[in-house]
Amino acid sequence: MNVPWLTVPGEQPQGAATGTLAVCFAPTGAHGSTFASWRGRLPEDTTLALVAPPGRGTRVDEEPVTDMAAYADATAAGIRELRGGRRLVLIGVSLGALLAYETCRRLLDSGVPVARLCAVAGQCPGDFHGRGEEVTVEDARAFVAGTGLTDPELLADPEFEEVLLPPVIADLRLAAGYDGRLGAVPQVELRAVWATDDPHVPEVTVRRWAEWTRGDCTLMSVEGGHYAHQENPAAVISACLDGLPGTRPSRRSVLGAGATAVAATVMGLGAVASSAPAARADAATATGGVSFDGDPTDPVGLAVAMIRQNTSNPGDGAVTLPLARMLQGIFRAAGVGTEIVPTPKDGNVHFFARVPGSGPGTKKPLVLLGHSDVVPAIGDTWETDPFAGEIRDGKLYGRGSLDMKGVNAAFVAALLRHVREGAAFDRDIVFWSDCDEEQGPYGVRWFLTEHPGKVAAGAVITEGGWVLDQRDGTTPMIASLTCNDKRSLLLRLETASYATHTSKPFSGQAVIRLGEVLDQLGQWRAHIRPNALSRRYFAELAEATTDRPFAKALREMLGARTDRQRDRAGEAVVRLSETPELHNAMLRTTLAFTAAQSGYYPSIVPGTATAEFRAAFLPGAEDPGRIVAELRSLIGNRATLSVVGNPGETEQQALDRLRGYLATPDSDYDTDVFRAWQSAVRRTHPGVRATACQFEAVTSAVPFREQNVPVYGMYPFTVNRDMLKRMHGTDEHIGVEALRQGTETVYQLLAGLRTDA
Question: pTM of the prediction?
């Protein structure tokens, strides 16, 4: 259906009475197709509407509009006709930010509410003074080349230039005649989105948007350049649409390199950039934290309350202060001392609760370390609201239920049960909820560097090992406590050919070549190389399982003397396992493909295509440099493979840093804490083997292990393959009764450290 100046692509609801209508304004010279990648990434209740002005797209034969007032009036009229009863969000990119702003003014003046205005990579209205300078074809060419709107060689094609330049000229004339200082500043919630690699609209420019609303203005940042809405669409969508008042949380997933929309600053009513920090502090204080009025020793109720605190970490850390305040209220009510330690990012905090020991004081504290941040629940459709904490069919659903708010709830409930009983421990027990485990600069390593000696841990328990059932799915088989982590390396592929018009496709296009190389890498398998921890675990598993063929394959793998024998037996282990992805990751180097990117204009065959993937390494097994060399040899000259290190790092420096991480010794499992865990498992899971293990992922343990502090990882509840597959995925969940039993395991572990038992 076409409405004047607006189109609704695809099979979306046209005049719905509920949900959100997201109206998108394209950048200079572009039209609605610039938002093509947004379809399928939006929340379920959101309709995408594209502004379709004359002179481009399907209206290319019409005379373009070069007057801002006429443009905004026509768009506002189209929105009023299309809106129905929906919540309205206006999203403008580059010049589109000004168009959205002026349209917002007109809608508000006519009594139409606007829930949010989003300015992406755009200059603010005050930067335009309406001088009306003449715009030439050369100006348009320079703009196109300078902003990277298309490949420079395509501008030499007269046919292509004839299509591309007129809309650019029209928009440049519109901007030249616009004076943003005229008219009243609107009362609207505004999100100003800055692209971190944008050379044209830097952060300081984006900050000035705070002066152009009488409502709250939030500065967001996303990875990408001036056209981040195309390069990194999921991050821009998240920055614009997440957290709308009265709407369900977003259900997209951040995919691709640098998908890191990050809430950086919250500015008060009409605040200027220089006063933003004080306003941010006020805003963070105002958020507070919801109180918890349930039983704090009930892990299910606690987990539900934690899940309902949306602590999504879009890339540079989550806003964890409200959750920290909720935890503070819970512990203070139990008479336990607490502390909230801020980081340089507003609302991003570490939380501590400490139960003092009453023993002779010779033992250092045991730290129960759980991260409060979670990965975003965006991109893929959930069957439940990811932040509702819904219990259905005996399962607790929600982002973080498994990773790792369920574990945090078990830690808190078990500890407070001891406190309620008047427990005396032989050491301090510290519950630490850290804020930047998934991503971000202010996690455990930052804290230990900035606050040395503040925790002084003697041992740490965090996320890690699993409790698995026999093949019947009901009988517990083995419990593991991890003593080391895998570490990963980010790698980037790039294929290149040449860019051209879509009317002239050719063999060897960059996108096709990328697909071929990815398919080849997807078939690659590293040798089976279990390290010492993995061998210990699989030896115990061979004794624990009642599946005879599985046990036989395990023993053959452990007894193999050649790579060929070990690979053959190891593949049988993976094939026969009830959790094949888990056991495969514990046996070898693995590749996980996370992002692919190519194309930027619907009539251009792109000249390059890129993909990123992670190679994860077992300590004591493969050398990362050798694996990189093997992969390069495999793909030959069909693609370029590069190592993505930290900013400023060379490939060699990145590899050496990773080798240092991989050389960190395993945590000693001949300790009283490890033995207390084994005793706890025997109490809660009689007959189940409790063993040290290698974790298949990365945790916050490395900074402690580097200081020779033993760190152990546990997910104390029973899991199955489906549950493991949904970790960081859709419909993440844990079993309610499994959570209760896992909490009992934590309780029994702590009971082994009591002096009054």
Answer: 0.65
